[in-house]
Amino acid sequence: MPYRLRTAAIALAALLTLPAAAQTADDPVAGRALFDNTMAETGRTFSANCSGCHSVQSRRAMLSGNNDPLAALAFDDAFGALVVAITGGVDAMAQFNNVLTLQQVRDLSAYIADTPRTSATALDFSASAVNTPSAAQNVDLRHAVAVDETLTVVSVAISGSGAARFTRSSDTCDTQTLAAGASCRVSLGFSSPDTAGHTASLDFTLRQGASSTTFTRSVALNGVASGTTPPPPPAGGSDDGGGALGLGWLAALGAAVAGLSRRRRG
Description:
- The protein is of the alpha+beta class and 266 residues long.
- It has two domains: 3-115 and 241-265, no CATH class; 122-225, Immunoglobulin-like, CATH 2.60.40.10.
- The chain is 32% helix and 23% strand.
- It has helices at 3-15, 28-36, 38-42, 50-53, 56-64, 75-89, 102-112, 248-265; strands at residues 117-118, 122-127, 137-142, 151-159, 166-171, 177-178, 183-190, 198-208, 215-225.
- The strands form two sheets. Strands 2-9-8-4-6 form a five-stranded mixed sheet, with no helix packed on it. The protein has a four-stranded antiparallel sheet with strand order 1-3-7-5, with no helix packed on it.
- The longest helix has 18 residues, at 248-265.
- It is elongated.
């Protein structure tokens, strides 16, 4: 059996031993409390709280695949990595097995994946005819929930070879400052004088808190007029947060665990 499949099978089997709890919405705020003070939140004594061994930024940097502590991460990636670590992948994490409930593991995963993100990673526009505006589409930018710092939107821009074909009809994001959990919206449209496919990128340049370092979230834009098939997204245009562990088995693991939780509650 391939290594990743074997690891996933081991993790799924081990999840059967996690204490059951009524499942609620995954909560990054609860996950932060667990991460920062694991012993107080669980009423158990461990060698250290999660935060005593590493920072959440270091976990995000590891999962990003490019050492980026502010990368957009998928919940399934964080969840899969955490389950494998607790159920045998990391010796120091084994102390949490049979102690943390499935919901607590999910909340911790939600916290690890809690970074600023866009509501879409790509948008496809189709205009009914040349020189005819397409229907508008929206992109929402949401700040992380379990944070103390604000998020500054330094700039919003459309870049790429087809940038001139895409327009912002409204924008409540550019130069704005977002509190934790707050969001803003950019509305876009497409028009073209020809039937060729056009691609561009909607780029948010961001800064969190008092840091002078900026980072980006990008949404791939694809447009075509007269009903032809939109071109594929440009390479590197998606911000799906897949990172080093953005693999199908992690998504399957999350789905299987959700099913397991429902069966155990029944």
